[in-house]
Each structure stands twice: as structure tokens, then as C-alpha cells.
Amino acid sequence: MLRFSKSKIIATMAIIVIGLLLAVPSTMTRETRDAFQRSLPGWVPSWLIPSRAIVLGLDLQGGSHVLLEVDVPDLLRTQSTQIRDDIRRILRETRVSPQGGIQMTQRGAQLRVPDAGDRDRLLPRLRELSQPIGNAVIGQTGNRDIDVAVTPEGLITLNFTEAGVNERVRRAVDQAIEVLRRRVDALGTTEPNIQRQGVDRILVQVPGLQDPQRLKDILGRTAKLEFRLLGQQGAADVDMLPMRDAGGQLTPVERQIIVEGGDLVDAQPAFDSRTNEPIVNFRFNIRGAQRFGQATTENIGRPLAIVLDNEVISAPTIQSAITGGSGQISGRFSVQQANDLAVLLRAGALPAKLTIVEERTVGPGLGADSIEAGKMATYVAAILVMIFMFATYGLFGLIANIALLVHVGLIFGLMSVLEATLTLPGIAGIVLTIGTAVDSNVLIYERIREEVKAGRSIVSGVQAGFERAFATIVDSNSTMAIAAVILFFLGSGPVRGFAVVFILGILTTVITAVTLTRMMIALWYHWARPKTLPF
Amino acid sequence: MRLVRLWPENSHFDFMSLRRFSLPFSALISVLTVVMLMTVGLNFGIDFKGGTLMEIQSKTGQADVGKVRQTAESFGFGEVEVQEFGTAGGVSLRFAIQPGGEAAQSAVVQRARDTFGPEYDFQRVETVGPRVSNELVQSGTVGIVLSVIAVLFYLWFRFERELAIGSIIGTLHDIVLTVGFFVITRHEFNMTSIAAILTIVGYSLNETVVVFDRTRELMRRYKTMPTTELLNLSINHTMSRTIMTATTTALSLLALVLFGGRAIEGFAQVMLYGVVICTYSAIFISSPMLIYIGLRSSETAKVPEGKVAAAE
């Protein structure tokens, strides 16, 4: 009865060997892996050699996990300002003047036009501002992004619709991801991961960072650069902005923006040739150069404010017309500050303010310690469990131990193929499965013992033991799997790593504890022809 | 070679008679836990409460905890918990969540880095804002509730109704007592604790299912055997497996407690405790419950009296 055909044995062994080979790349460093790939002779196809490896979680290799959220009110403010500017343009073109100007609201703008004739000329133009929402993939949704409403008294409101807000948040996140990628790349770290999370969030993961504070500084800055003229105190069209040189004292700055950061084509850190102070050199594109040239020609002798994120960095006096399209920013920077500012300006401004809602940083030293501790716990757990299994079941215990080792190997193999992330809780999961994986063997062995005791021969006892225990094994592993799957969908980061290991562990137990163990016992039986059970 | 046996062969221990002690005992402990949960409460970590956690290590290997505490309190960021850990000058600081929304939390880290940076290495910094912590509370609660429901469905499909009710009572018992462990030991309750509870849910069912699989099998074989005897027989039959598995699992968790390092030892302790509780509840809670639920309530009527019981 205990028969295993040759082909079945070969198939089982093949699956196990392939599974274990898949784990091999994970035992090497990236350099060794690459070197190995290169050292292969040309006739070996590259797909034949496993190259995928387990990714270490940030808690093990050290690094920063930063979750940023788009500041939606801030985004809407910026967007509403644009609407206001558009309305202003249309008012000029249609020669309508509203009563009391244009008011900004929380999610749009409003104006009062009591004259019906004016309204009739104005409204069609205003309605043009509203765009249908949709894209090539989902097609037209029928929704529009701006809702234009009029009351009988002549109050016209332009408000973003819910869909309009979402659309703008979505676009802002897309843009922000691009900008952040350019910024983080400039830090020169390896393999940063930047991705959208949910609707309005961006997850940035940067492994192995020496200075996480600098990362946060670089991520959090909007980096909106504007060149504006200093204004007169108390004038109508000025904003009061803090001046960095003067210790944050509020200074009037004209609202009119001469040139924006978007018109920069390059920014590089440098040193001022006279004062030796760190500065940032920049170059404008053609449009920026023209505007800047014109403004500097017309305003010689007036101070020009360089405004970064609503703070006046410096306000040098225009000595002569600057028509060459390049210039410099000075502001008592340290070398690093000048460097970072150049990075930020090159990468461009964020479409809206981003707020850090979660940060988790682990130093590389602690990560390495955790790996060592995890290895130690894994070895000790394996040794304890294997000794105990051997002491209880003798030869069958040894068979279970071989299955256990293969089981752990297969978990690593599967994780490598999936390029799954191994986290510290994941290591705990591996240690835990060492304890629970032998459960299937125990169920089978105890059942075999019972069956043989009840008078069956060894062959039929073993056979019955496997068959009867199988239902129980499926039941007990399914209950564990339910909990693990829920954990996978709910958890994030490290906890998810635990769930992955646990789910894979349950899958591989079925292969090792049932198929592999059965095969080994069959082979042993045919070789030794025993009269009694060895336990 | 003499092999180890942790449980004697052919045991006939009367487990069910112990229900006189186990049921009131567990009921009392469960009530106490709920009371303590409402009065003392859990020691929520920053995952659920928000705030900032920092682990710093002295560059010289010697930490002056008193000074760190004094300095940290002088920041004016409210309540700070300062604790020493390890032997090489490790200090952990936990700042409560700062008023003023998401952006206000970063100031704590900035300030601490500036102040302690010259003398200490920052090994771990975790900041969780109010919004994220609320979401984590939500997903943690959803997770536990969902797992209980999912498991209930599984049992309902796989077993008779009575067995399903018995095991879910055992599982709830294990969840309550695990929460009690967190309340009493003041272990930090965070997302990893949710992982521990869910794993315990899985293990708890695993234990009950193994016993009940046997109960179901025996029920079919001995159609007239009284429930108490049937349950005793099931447990005696599966006892050596139960002890084996509890031991191997406990051994690997022990390795984790002793060598797994600071970050994981809390999780391992809870799990170790969970293994004991789950083993206990499968035998002394879920099984005796069946006596009261009435194991054969749906079947007894149609069982023919007579010779089936003589099969063995």
C-alpha cells in the first residue's frame, strides 16, 4: 500500500529542489548576485538562473518610512486663486465690473453682478471655465469640475464640485510624486520607493539613510519660488511676508509675480566670488528671461524680493537690467542649505503643501542588531524543536526534522520569487511556524500510533494515519490561514510581513508535512521492512 | 533508545469533571478583565494613541537617564515617558501627541534631534499623527471583529452548529484573556499586538478544531455514548498531540523571547501566554460548553437504540 511511483518521487523532489534553489539568491548580497550572473557563460539563458531575492524591510535594513498627505485646504486655496485670476481676466474682456470685487470662498470664488445684461454676457464665458471630468480610460463621467450657480439677486458662485476636488487632489498627488522622486533621487540614496497611498497620500520609503532629518526637510518643503518687487507699506496690492534677514519681520511685497520657479531651467549651488558665501546660481527659460529682463530694466534701484514658500529669503536692490536670463540667490546660506535649495529648485515646486502624517525611522545599527537577534532566535528555535521531535519520535522525528528544514527553505524560496519583504515581525513569523509546522507531523504520527495500537499492520496503520489526519490538518491550517489573510489585508509594513510569512508557511506545510514526510516514510518502509513502529 | 512521552498512553482522565472549577474560574477572570479594561485600560502605544517614540543610544555607552528626562520635560511638549533599556546606554522616550494636528508632531523630533544628537545616536524614531492613529484603531478593531466573524462562518460550514458555538466561545475567551494580559502586564498595545491577537485566534481554533474533529468522529462511531464521556474520550485521544504541539510552539516562542531582541520580545511573550491559554480553553472551556449546549440536540431523536455502542 505504501507505494510511491518513481515519477511521483522525482516530481516531488524536483519541486522541492527548485523551491530551495529559488531561495539561494536571497542568501547572497546584491554584488555577489550580479557578479555571479556576469560570470556565467553566454549560452546559459538568464531566466534559468534564479535572480529574485527577498527584500529586507526598513525595520531590518534601516531607513525611513514617511507618509505624506496633501493639504487639501491649501490646494483648494491655490486653485481658488487661479479661478479668481481667470474671472478677473474674463471680467476685463467682457468689461463687466462686479459689485464689491471678487471674493474667495473655501472651495471657489464668488462675485456679485446685479445687472442682468452684464450677467448674460459674463455667464457663458464663466461656464467655459468648468471642465468635464474624465480621461481616456474611464471616458466621460458626465460630471464637471466647477459648478457655476447664480441667484436671482445676481450672486454668481463658482465652486469646485466634489468630483472636481477629487480630480484636483488626484492630479496634485501625481505631480507631487514626480517632484518628490526628483528630490529624493538628488539625495543619491539607493532604491527609494515613492508611491501613492489611498486618495491623498504619498508613501516615501528610503532605505539606509544617514540623515533622516534632511530627508524630511527636503520632502516637506513646497519650494515655491517667486520673484516679486518690494512694495509700499499700506498699499493695496501687497502681501505682508516675513523677511529672513530681518529675523522674520513682516515686509510688504507686491502681489504681482514677475517670474516663478516654474520658469527656471537650472539651479546650482556655488560660491559668491566676492564674499565667498554659498549661493545658488540659476538660469531662466526664454519666457522667464524676457519677463525678468523687462522687470529689471523698468525697476532699477528698487529692491527685488526673492520669495521662497512665502518667506522673503533676500531682497537685493536691482543694480542694472538683468537680461542674460541668469542670476543668483544669496541669503546667508550654509553650504548644505545652498545645496538643498538648488535641489528643490531643480526638482520644481509641489502643487500643494504636504504634511507628514506618519514617520518611522530605524537606524542601520538597530536593523543589523535585529537581523542578528532574529537569526539567533531562528536557530535556537529550530534546534530545540528538532531535539524534542527526535526525542519523542526517534526515526520519525528525524523525518519530521528534514521536512521542517525543507519547510523553512521553501518559505524563503517562495518569498524570493515573490520578492516579498522580510520584516522583523516576519522573522517572528518564521520562528513561530517552526513550532507550528511540526504540528501536522505530530497529528499524523499520533494517528499512526493509534491505528497500529488498534491492531492494524504498520503499512495499513501508516496509510490510515495519513488519510485520517489529513482532514484535521486541513481544518487546523485553514483556521490559521483565515486569521493570517485578514491580517495581511489590514496590516501595513512590518505586520503585513508577518502575515505573508504565515500564509506561505501554511502552504508549504502541506507540501512538506504531508507529501514529503509520506514519501520518506514509504522509502524507509521499503528499505527496512520493520515489524514495529520506531516510536 | 527510550523515547520521551509527555502524556501516558491509554489515559482515561476525567477532564469534564474539572469544569466545576474551570468554568467559574474563567468566568471570573473574564469579568475581572473587562472591569480592569474599563477602569485601568490598555497601555496604548503610539500606533493607536499618536505621538512620538524615540530610542536613542549613548555614544559613550553610558546614559544619564535622569538628565535626559529633565531635558525632555523642559521642551514643553507635555508628558514624556523616559525609560532605560539594555546595558549599552539605551534610552527610550515617548512623547504624547501634540495639539495642533499633523504638522505639530514633527517639531518634537526636530527638537530632540537638535538637543540629544551630539551625545546620542537615534536608533528609532516613530511619529504617528492623530489621523493615522485613528485609522489604525479602526483597522485594528475591524480586524479582530472580522476574524471572529470569518472564523464563525468557517466553523458553521465545516462543523455541526453546536461544535461551532462551543469553539467560538473558547476563542472569545482567549481574546478576552489575552487582552487581560495586556492590561495587567502593561505591555504596550500596538499594531503588533493586534497581529498577536489574530494569531492567537488562529491557534485557539486550531486547538479546538483538533479536539472537535475527534469528537465528531467518535460521535458517529458511538452513537449512544453520553456527551460527557464522548468529550472525555476525544480529549484523551488527542491529548498527546495537544501537548506535543503546545510544547514545540512554546519552545520556538521561548527562543524568540530569549534571543529575539527587544523589539519582538513583547510579541513573543504574549504569544507564549496565548499558547497556554488556548490549550487550556480548548480542553476546559470549549469542550465542556458542549455539555450545556447539548451535543446531540439535533440528532438524538433519530438514533436507534442498541448494538452500535458495542462496536468497540
**How many individual β-strands of chain A?**
21
CATH class of the largest domain in chain A: Mainly Alpha
Q: Under the CATH scheme, which class of the largest domain in chain B?
A: Mainly Alpha
| CA-atom Rg of chain B in angstroms | 25 Å
Strand content of chain A: 15-25%
Oligomer: heterodimer
Subunit structure (chain A): Forms a complex with SecF. Part of the essential Sec protein translocation apparatus which comprises SecA, SecYEG and auxiliary proteins SecDF-YajC and YidC.
Keywords (chain A): Cell inner membrane, Cell membrane, Membrane, Protein transport, Translocation, Transmembrane, Transmembrane helix, Transport
Membrane topology (chain A): Multi-pass membrane protein
Pfam families (chain A): Sec_GG, SecD_1st, SecD_SecF_C, SecDF_P1_head
Give an account of the 3D structure.
The complex is a heterodimer of chains A (535) and B (312). Chain A is built from 14 helices and 21 strands. The model of chain A has no long low-confidence stretch (mean pLDDT 87). Chain A is α+β, with helices and mostly antiparallel strands. The longest helix of chain A has 36 residues, at 493-528. Chain A has a four-stranded antiparallel β-sheet with strand order 9-10-2-20. Chain A is elongated, with a radius of gyration of 34 Å. Chain A folds into three domains: 6-60 and 367-528, Multidrug efflux transporter AcrB transmembrane domain (Multidrug efflux transporter AcrB transmembrane fold, Up-down Bundle); 72-164; 226-334, 2-Layer Sandwich (Gyrase A, domain 2). In chain A, 52% of the residues lie in helices and 21% in strands. Chain B has two domains: 15-43 and 133-300, Multidrug efflux transporter AcrB transmembrane domain (Multidrug efflux transporter AcrB transmembrane fold, Up-down Bundle); 51-128, Alpha-Beta Plaits. In chain B, α5 runs parallel beside α7. Chain B is elongated, with a radius of gyration of 25 Å. Chains A and B meet through α7, β20, α10, α12 and α13 of A and α4, β5, α5, α7 and α8 of B. β20 of chain A pairs antiparallel with β5 (120-128) of chain B.
